[in-house]
UniProtKB/TrEMBL annotation:
<dbReference type="Pfam" id="PF01592">
    <property type="entry name" value="NifU_N"/>
</dbReference>
<protein>
    <submittedName>
        <fullName>Iron-sulfur cluster assembly scaffold protein</fullName>
    </submittedName>
</protein>
<dbReference type="GO" id="GO:0005506">
    <property type="term" value="F:iron ion binding"/>
</dbReference>
<dbReference type="GO" id="GO:0051536">
    <property type="term" value="F:iron-sulfur cluster binding"/>
</dbReference>
<feature type="domain" description="NIF system FeS cluster assembly NifU N-terminal">
    <location>
        <begin position="4"/>
        <end position="124"/>
    </location>
</feature>
<dbReference type="GO" id="GO:0016226">
    <property type="term" value="P:iron-sulfur cluster assembly"/>
</dbReference>
<dbReference type="InterPro" id="IPR002871">
    <property type="entry name" value="NIF_FeS_clus_asmbl_NifU_N"/>
</dbReference>
Length: 149
């Protein structure tokens, strides 16, 4: 088994930062209608810093692992880092394999690069990331913008 598969399995079996915590500034619930994966995600901000990202994820290993990786990568980070990381992960996952990802930017989420070749699984890997974007939008932040709101 290669390192990437091991990373996905490790994050899926023992998700990092799992469980819904309070206080939080926004909460969203997303469902992947294709397979039934679900995530409830909460975000807490302290100014431009994501002070906490908590979640409850039900679904396949890719979906659970992706949520775990997201929480690891972005908890405690500023919004600029969140925007850069979000864009890099989304680009890698939607590239159909053309964008191999940048481990310096996306850390363990590089393990999800192979998912890009399987369109049916891309939504599983993106579920938590899209939930984060929606949760932050509820706090007035657009992850696709260059400047802060």
């Amino acid at each position: 088994m290669d390192l990437y598969q091991e990373l996905i399995i490790e994050h899926a079996k023992r998700p990092h930062r799992a469980g819904l915590r309070a206080p939080f500034d926004a909460e969203v619930h997303h469902v992947n209608p294709t397979c039934g994966d679900e995530v409830t995600l909460r975000v807490a901000r302290d100014g431009d810093v994501l002070s906490d990202i908590s979640y409850d994820s039900l679904g396949c290993s890719i979906s659970v692992a992706s949520g775990s990786m997201l929480a690891d990568l972005l908890t405690g980070e500023n919004l600029d880092t969140a925007r850069t990381t979000f864009a890099a992960v989304r680009s890698m996952l939607t590239s159909k394999g053309a964008d191999p990802g940048d481990e310096e930017v996306i850390g363990d989420a590089i393990a999800l690069a192979g998912v890009a070749k399987y369109p049916a699984r891309v939504k599983c890997a993106l579920l938590s990331w899209m939930a984060l974007a929606d949760a932050l939008a509820k706090t007035g932040v657009n992850l696709s913008e260059e400047s802060h709101v």
